[in-house]
């Protein structure tokens, strides 16, 4: 029985699962910790690390492109191996994602690894956004156009699709992603209160727990200047010590000591305007010296590069995916800003799926059930006969 494995191979997490099963979200990297320097942990072995302080990541991706094949192979060996998915390569097709504008050298390496090393029966290389668009069109069959905003670890991509095909003239990339936000937060905290430059893992968790997208930046700035309990932005975050406190958490407001000092041995971060100033980078990259458009402007710019009669259809089908879209307030802010930049006679609608991190994986699952799926893939026999050329011809990347 032929099965299909869907792998949305992101720069931060791999979303993987058989098309007949559910998805698992697993770190797409290896780790070493300060305490156990000699041991390398792979993917979901992260849970085995007793003391994740000073944890450093060894990532297969750099700046959004897969460059470290040794690390990627180790992660894939782990995922495809007997502890995880027990892949029977000869009877399995794989749908695997790759970045937009990927380098042909990377594509060739991927073909070789999938067909020659692992010997999958068949493969389909595709952009994650194309899978998200496929899912959106399946669920909204009356719509012909959508624009996928994929704000991930390395980049934010804005890609318009019409009748399932991506419109290359409208593709826009902003060099701001989750990694940059975490690094920015590390710098602010290190400058203001505590040296955390080595604590990527912990501060990434802080970001996910406390950051939000402001709906009115100047109003929040005024609140953040207030003293004591009137400052509703201020938050105290208890850092993990990895013995009694395994995971950091926000102190409940009623337990906060506004005079600043706590008697207990807890290590506290006091966060104010960085809670919204860090995610603001997605909307104004120039705040930290990156001379690029923010997401709402880039959406409008992307649509304006497309034929006039199609533009209204894109504005009413804006789909948010990727981990940054989970920041509280993200959807509302994108809507508000795009609305203010768009002619009033256009309808604007911004959709945040229930699970924006796995949305493209779900699109891959749907695609694998498509009656034309066998026409889309390259089989190992095709590849052995024709080499990379056949992949280049067939995969519209």
TrEMBL record:
GO terms for cellular component: cytoskeleton; nucleus. Its main location: cytoplasm. SUPFAM superfamilies: Actin-like ATPase domain. InterPro entries: Actin, ATPase_NBD. Belongs to the actin family. ARP6 subfamily. This is Actin-related protein 6. Keywords: Cytoplasm, Cytoskeleton, Nucleus. The gene is ACTR6. CDD domains: ASKHA_NBD_Arp6. It is found in: Cytoplasm, Cytoskeleton; Nucleus.
């Amino acid at each position: 029985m032929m099965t299909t494995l869907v792998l949305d191979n992101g720069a931060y997490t791999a979303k993987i699962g058989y098309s007949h099963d559910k998805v698992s979200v697993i770190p797409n990297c290896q780790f070493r910790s300060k305490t156990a320097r000699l041991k390398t942990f792979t993917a979901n072995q992260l849970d085995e690390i007793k003391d994740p302080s000073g944890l450093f990541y060894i990532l297969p991706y750099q700046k959004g492109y897969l460059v470290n094949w040794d690390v990627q192979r180790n992660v894939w060996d782990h995922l495809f191996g007997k502890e995880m998915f027990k892949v029977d390569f000869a009877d399995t097709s794989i749908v695997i994602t790759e970045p937009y504008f990927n380098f042909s050298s990377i594509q060739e390496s991927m073909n070789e690894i999938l067909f020659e090393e692992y010997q999958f029966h068949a493969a389909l290389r595709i952009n994650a956004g194309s899978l998200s668009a496929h899912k959106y069109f399946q669920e909204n069959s009356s719509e012909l156009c959508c624009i996928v905003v994929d704000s991930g670890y390395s980049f934010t991509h804005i890609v318009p699709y019409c009748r399932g095909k991506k419109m290359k003239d409208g593709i826009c990339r902003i060099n701001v992603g989750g990694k940059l936000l975490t690094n920015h937060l590390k710098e602010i905290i290190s400058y203001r209160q505590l040296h955390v430059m080595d604590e990527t893992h912990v501060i990434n968790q802080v970001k996910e727990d406390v950051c939000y997208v402001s709906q009115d930046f100047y109003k929040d700035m005024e609140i953040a200047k207030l003293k004591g309990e009137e400052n509703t932005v201020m938050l105290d975050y208890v850092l993990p010590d990895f013995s009694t406190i395994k995971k950091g958490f926000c102190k409940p407001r009623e337990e906060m000591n506004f005079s600043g000092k706590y008697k207990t041995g807890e290590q506290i971060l006091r966060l104010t305007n960085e809670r919204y100033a860090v995610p603001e980078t997605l909307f104004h990259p120039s705040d930290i010296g990156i001379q690029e458009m923010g997401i709402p402007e880039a959406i409008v710019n992307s649509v304006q590069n497309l034929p006039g009669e199609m533009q209204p259809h894109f504005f009413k089908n804006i789909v948010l995916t990727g981990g940054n879209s989970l920041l509280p307030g993200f959807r509302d802010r994108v809507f508000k800003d795009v609305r203010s930049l768009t002619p009033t006679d256009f309808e604007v609608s911004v959709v945040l799926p229930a699970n924006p991190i796995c949305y493209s994986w779900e699109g891959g699952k749907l695609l694998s059930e498509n009656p034309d799926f066998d026409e889309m893939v390259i089989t190992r026999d095709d590849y052995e006969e024709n080499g990379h050329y056949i992949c280049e011809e067939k995969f519209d990347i």
